Amino acid sequence: MKTATRQPVRAVDPESLRIVEGPGLYFPHHEFPCTGSRTGQLSRDRRVLRAMIRFENVTKVYDQKARPALDAINLEIDRGEFAFLVGASGSGKSTFLRLVLKEDRASSGAVYVAGQNVATISSWRVPRLRRGIGVVFQDFRLLPQKTVFANVAFAMQVIGKSRSVIRDTVPEVLKTVGLEGKEHRFPHELSGGEQQRVAIARAVVNRPGILLADEPTGNLDPTTSMGIMGVLDKINQNGTTVVMATHDDDIVNEMRKRVVELRNGVIIRDESKALYTSMIPVVGASRRLKDASGREDTAPPATPGSEGAR
Amino acid sequence: MRLAFILGEIGGGLRRNLSMVVSVILVTFVSLTFVGAAGMLQLQINQMKGFWYDKVQVAIFLCSDGATSASCATGPVTEEQQANLQTLLESAAVTQYVNDFTFESQDDAYRHFTEQFANSPIVDSVTPDQLPSSFRINMEDPEKYQVISEIFSSQPGVETVIDQRQLLEQLFTVMNGASLVAVLVAGVMIVCAILLIATTIRLSAFSRRRETGIMRLVGASKTVIQLPFILEGVIAAVVGAALASGTLWAVSKFFLGDYLSQQYPDTAFISPGQTLLLAPALLILGASLAGISSLLTLRKYLKV
Ligand SMILES: Nc1ncnc2c1ncn2[C@@H]1O[C@H](COP(=O)(O)OP(=O)(O)OP(=O)(O)O)[C@@H](O)[C@H]1O
Ligand SMILES: [Mg+2]
Fold this sequence. Notes:
The structure holds 2 protein chains of 2 kinds. Chain A has 11 helices and 10 strands. Chain A is an alpha/beta fold. Chain A folds into 2 domains: 2-132 and 208-309, P-loop containing nucleotide triphosphate hydrolases (Rossmann fold), CATH 3.40.50; 142-207, no CATH class. The longest helix of chain A is centred in the C-terminal third of the chain and has 16 residues, at 222-237. Chain B has 2 domains: 2-52 and 169-301, no CATH class; 57-164, Alpha-Beta Plaits (2-Layer Sandwich). Helices cover 69% and strands 8% of the residues of chain B. Chain B is built from 11 helices and 4 strands. Chain B has a 4-stranded antiparallel beta sheet with strand order 2-3-1-4. In chain B, helix 1 packs across helix 9, helix 2 (18-53) runs antiparallel to helix 7 (164-207) and helix 7 runs antiparallel to helix 9. Chain B starts with a helix and ends with a helix. Chain A binds chain B through residues 101, 123-124, 126-135, 141, 143, 154-155, 157-163, 202-203, 206, and chain B through 1-2, 5, 210-211, 213-222, 224-225, 304. The structure holds adenosine-5'-triphosphate and magnesium ion.
């Protein structure tokens, strides 16, 4: 199985190291301050800094009359981690991702991204936050009148990257997502899976520290989906933290990553190397289990088990 | 790179929204033409004030054959009355208000009349003795008209005392009224222009919401996202303002310069060069109209 062979190799995988250190594709943790030790008892500040994404008692209410979309969520996602967000429709997965992007403000509680409380980011600095976060959606959102190359280059142009950097970087990213030789196609000349690869390439071309994917395989067949997961996994191995909201049980079961399950805006399960449902118990893999209220937050430093999973 | 990108976006936006852009150009063109017309009228008024105020005179018209006023019941002015008036004009009581004066005889008056109405058939029906002779007084201080009027109105042989400045003031009142109307029309047109620019920008932002959505997500700055839209409106408005300036220049060159100044050779009309002084004001006005209305629109429709 793919997951079994990959993980031990990962830390020394020469291919991934090349990409990390090479002049081209480099997913920078340097976009964000990297502090905090992995051993011993961490202070709260340290933990805040170490976590890539940290939700502290976050509640999001869209409509005063309805139940909160997120209800007192406590969650921490570490640097370099790969986490699935699962849960029924309307359970708050997309809301979670929107809060990370500061597309919406939390009604209460604090959202930290790379150690910074997003509520304290002034509106003119929000673009900086978003440059550190790539986003992929179910519906690809490519520009139909632009070629594959131009779609990816667009993400660099609009943040003022020079033509030569774009010329060097884009083909490399397209290679990473498996689209070599298709640079000059238009989106309508690509399959859904290929279009999603373009969208992923666009999301990571500026080397974000975080990749958020909202049901990226929702429109794709199982085989194509697994291909996309391969790409996301590769990006994750290059050091990018990946959070993926999904309904796709096959994928979750195949990947065996951390799974955070939401129900009605509350975290009802948070396990590492987990399955889509908790029906089949995963012995020894439980990272931390929360009660249905989600209010308990002991947030211990990463266990050896979860360390190995990254 | 970013500049090239923004310019490309502007070009694309202008092309995609061509009909709206043309209407923005036309509306700003018309509204700024009215603004400029009001400005031209004001310039013309100032010009005429400067030109006439040292020339205008108080005219003491003497009784002639045709005079009908009560003060002329005794008939046309006599030589003696005329000599008395001249003495009075030279007396110390009057000279302090007067720079100098001239006498315009009936023949002089007829000559001026025929010159002024050269193209008009009225000339044939007028004879020199129907026109009054007059003393033309150049005032030291034009405001002191009342004093002269009081002294001379009651003198025998004087038909009436007229302050030419008042005649001019009437003309200026008409011109001021016209420029007020122009300003009002311009105001309405400017409101149209603002609304139209806002609508255009909104449509443009709507048709490019995919691009702007992606720009937002990948962390493009507010400037990069909004500037193309703002500049699109500003460029259209500036083109409109340039057309308005060109039109005003053409009016002052061909209508005032070539046509009216031939019809009224004594009148000083503003020159095309003076009209061009209005152009920068119109350009700035057009650009800021567009800039402000698009900023306000984008704040609502292109949140970052
Ligand atoms: N903009 C909004 N305004 C009002 N309510 C909203 C808004 N966005 C989401 N909600 C509500 O918040 C709740 C959570 O929505 P959310 O989109 O986060 O769910 P989701 O888990 O992503 O669902 P799905 O799996 O269908 O995408 C839902 O009840 C939804 O109706
Ligand atoms: Mg969703």
